[in-house]
Each structure stands twice: as C-alpha cells, then as structure tokens.
Task: structure prediction
Amino acid sequence: MEESIQFMANYSDWKSIKKLKIEAATEPKTIMEFLASLETGIDRKIENNLRKLVELDKVDAAIAELGLAKGKENVGIAIAEVNSRKVNSVIKEICTKPELQKNEQTELIGFCKVYALRKALNETEVFVDYTSVKIPGMKRMMKKKA
Result:
C-alpha cells in the first residue's frame, strides 16, 4: 500500500487539494513543511469562519488596547491580559447570542480565546505555531494569498 497524506477542501470560498506521496526517500523535512502548509491554510479558514459567526474586530481592538510589547519577557503579561476580565468580557459579549444554545456559546468562547491568545502572543513576536516558520517554498504561496 502506498503511503501518502491527502487533504481536500471543496466548498464555497475554499478550494484546496494537497497531496504528498511518501516514499522511503522522502525527507522528514518535506513532511514537516507539507503539514505546516496545511496548518497555515486550516488556521486561516478557522479564523475566516469564526469571523462569520462573531465580531472578531472587537477582540482585535481589545488586544490592540493592551499595548503589548515585543519580546519574550512580555509573554506572561500577554497571557495574563488575554485572560483578564477586559478581554474575556469582549469575548463573552460577542459569543452570547440568543439563537445559540449554551454549549454552542461555550464552544465559540473557546475558539475566541484561542484566537485572542494567538493574536496577543503574536504581538510579542513569540512563535505559537508552525505558521510563523519561514519555509522557503511557502513564500510564493503566502504572497499570493496576502
């Protein structure tokens, strides 16, 4: 049986087919880069779809108001601020919708908290996922999508 990784997305605003055939000669680095490229696309689509459900601009504004500085010494501050009443109240406000059941609201709150934390840590220039890794072959793709 042939080893491979395949990903296919085919819906309204996302068409993507990515395949990687894995052979004995396939370098682990090639597999890592392939998976990182998948994560980049998936993370972007999670955010895009979350924006369709809630007003993420309000979370963006709350994070911007924190005035987080660059540097690893500010990571603790970023985490504390994202978990502060100020940011959490914005998240709760945008996720509390009467048309949603309580467990659906709780799920949205979880997605928004992850979004806020990633955004805040990005402000401190701390890598929190593989999308921050500069992969030479991905530069073209990232410019095209930006």
